[in-house]
Amino acid sequence: MSTGNHHSLNSTPVLNTVQPLIHAEGLGKQYFRRQSFSGRRLLVQAFENVNLRIFPAKTLALIGESGAGKSALGRCLAFLERPTRGNIWFEGRNVTELKKNDLFPLRRRVQLVFQDPTSALNPQMTAEEIIAEPLTIQREGTRSEWREQAVQLLEQVGLPGSWLRKRPLEFSGGQRQRLAIARALALEPMLLIADEAWSGLDLLNQELILKLFARLQAARALTYLYISHDLQLLSRYSDQVAVMYHGQIVEQKETADLFAHPEHPYTRDLLAAMPPIESIYRERFG
Question: Which of 151, 156, 239, 263 lies in disulfide reach of 161, CB 3.0 to 4.6 Å?
């Protein structure tokens, strides 16, 4: 099966000589969960032995079923949680060796966009306050500079700069997600991790958000990790695909190569379940 010319908006091949922006090696994460009735603590393996590379200004789609460990991996790659084992290199530096205080300045360079902007955004804050919040945490700039940057970021994500005083509930679902993206861009990150950042939207808004991500990537040379279960949706917006199954990366390839030569049985099942690209376009655009 082939995606033709539709598999990616950034189809330049990744050269082997390019150093990955972020590189995970032998990564594993365990959690302890307490049973509600017995109170016993159970060990849960979120993912194990994960090897993953994401290259500068490219898009990697991390695909897998619910419970595969994708979101837990995303939190570790954003330096929000420490892996139980393994190493993460960011720009060639092993960040798993750093202390908590040393991670703080690094977190500005990796930002997350979550699935549900309604719960991710404080409903009591204005758009201006939401966008400025990361800047205040990092103690950057002045209030007038925050306002100017908030206007620019709103316009860059396709919202009127005059909406500074609006609160999240005054925005539509797609507009709230654009606001969340504007906040994620405030610290000028190098890597954006979008965890199902479109799944709560209708089909048209899903497409519009992904096109917005593509435009921002072209303008800012951003690197993306898209976390999703929907290979159909992301097949045209990713340079590479990593397939996660039962807590492990079972396959990572250039998108076109994955479609043409899937190796793992789970990947083949995913592709077999996808409708032809022509029917995808009919479904999305009539």
Answer: 151
- Helices 127-137/173-185 angle, 10° precision: 30
CATH numeric code, 20-109+191-198+222-286 = 3.40.50.300
- pLDDT given at position 13: 41
CA gap 128, 148 in Å, rounded: 9
Closest to 88 (Cα-Cα) out of 57, 135, 52, 123: 52
Helix (H/G/I), strand (E/B), else coil: 60: strand
What are the tens digits of pLDDT across the range 89-141?
A: 999 999 998 988 888 888 889 999 998 888 889 999 999 999 999 888 877 77
DSSP state of 116: -
CA dist., res. 93 & res. 240, Å (int)? 23
pTM of the model: 0.86
Q: Where are the domains of the chain?
A: 20-109+191-198+222-286
Nearest-CA neighbor of 270 among 238, 250, 243? 243
- Residue 260 has which token pair? 């043409």
Is the per-residue pLDDT at 282 higher than 60?
Answer: no
